[in-house]
What does this fold into?
Amino acid sequence: MTFSMKRMYAIFQKDVRDLSKNMYITTTMLMPLALAIFYSTMDEVTMDMHYLIINLCFAAVGVFVQSAIIAEEKEKNTLRGLMLSPATLPEILGGKSLVTLVLTMATVLICALLMGYEPANYMIVGGAILISCFFYIALGTLVGLLTKSVVEASVLALPVMFIFSFGSLFLTLIEEYPILSFIEYLPSVQLVELAIEVETGAVFADLWSNFAIILAWIVLASLLTAVVYKKKEMDA
Amino acid sequence: MTEGLIFSNLEKQTKDNILFPNFDLTLAPGEIVAIYSTLNVRKMLLDLLRGKAVPSNGKISVHGKTLEEEKKAYMSAVNICFYEEGLYERLKVEDYFSFFIKLYDSGYRMEELLLDTQLQDKRRVRIQSLTESEKRRVHFGRIIIQNPDVFIFEEPDLNVDMETRRVYVNLAKKLQEKRKASLILTGNLENALTVADQVFRLDENGLHVLQVAEEEESKKEEVHTEEKDDEAIKPFQFNKIPTKVNEKIVLFDPQEIDYVESNDGQSNIYIKGESFPSLFTLNELEIRLQHVGFFRCHRSYIVNLQKVREVITWTRNSYSLILDDKAKSSIPLSKTKMAQLKEMLGLK
It folds into this structure.
């Protein structure tokens, strides 16, 4: 079947209209914004704080919104209608991912502006944030595919949000519990490391390992999503 | 190439049960056919139609193609209007329609669609604040946009208001004019009889014809003669109608009865929304009841005229009687009987 941009765009438009009236989801988006305002009143905002908020945006918007809008289609029995239409699943998921991407990037941008975050190299930091976003969207899609209702999705998204957005807070525990050393390789931690090095004047050549790890996470999440997708075939 | 939807030698068994034995049914363009069945059979038919279940035997084909052979062609030729269909409740009616117009790349115009579904004044209302009947019309709008060759309606007019039934009947007639085929799957005989040209019953005994468009008129004569005989011995006739309830025989006063429906040779008497199996056939009941204001309004129905509140004309040859009971039951009225009824009412 051919992939139609027109149909994907129709789904994108529909979801934007639908989301704009969905209080449940819009209020979740306010959480990182509220925290950003709170932190911005502090005298000095450290890099860790900036990224705590940015990672929270990824988790609360990227993962949560993506999983919720996929799960809601199942819950409300509307997916069957879509599946019986000429729209294919890649188009449906593509349209939804686009919505989430736009929303996530917008929230990240607003948060960064609120907190006055000014990276030394916009290209590298912007690129890293964008590709991290892809990872979280893949993760959200995975959660959405695995669950059958919005409530289920938000329950499952909670530990995911916790691990990936607050992971960096546990870095100090690694010395005590070596078992936690995997935390260093979390995409969120890698993103913080990358950003800190950018501030010290690092160029792309110094940062390839961080990028590689984040990319590896994207590949992993996409593979998992693809496997689940094949297995479930969206039992609408 | 064969046009339309064809069930050939289709059979389905689940575990130890036969849901339905093999049957053949052809739905040609411009035909409206209703299949009256239980919920189980209906759900299975719908699953078979969209390839969710595999038949035990036989196949379903559209324009000579089965689902397996050509999925895309099949899917674009058939569309199902489910009874339990989700809606994007937060969208406005017009946004919902415009989404599906884009999705199907359909040439339908919004104005036309709103007119066909009678939702003009609701176009800027969110779907969640519509009534159930109006939501049903949104479903109809969607299937109009899809515009397949074969329309399948699951319980199209169950639990809806009069306006929605009218929209639906008009839609069915319009589709017929456009040479589209419609298949109605319902558990409500009255609904099926109002719209369809042909009504079948499908159960574990197979597919049976319940009604064909032309009705035989042979019975009329004998009815008339007997009527005269009865009138002669009119005074003091015992006139209670016996019914079976479990092992008991319960007698009802004719004036309590709302209407009588015949189903597979068994006539059921409806009283205040409850049905009681009668000990007589519909013909016998007709003879017993016609002196007390009952009227055989359809091959399978006798109605108590005292309880009729409205006569609705859906199209030139499809009518319904609306009763004055709690449920506002509606009873089909066939074309030939309409003339007779008009005569009785003194209208010419």
About this structure: The domain at 220-344 of chain B is CATH 2.40.50.1020 (OB fold (Dihydrolipoamide Acetyltransferase, E2P)).
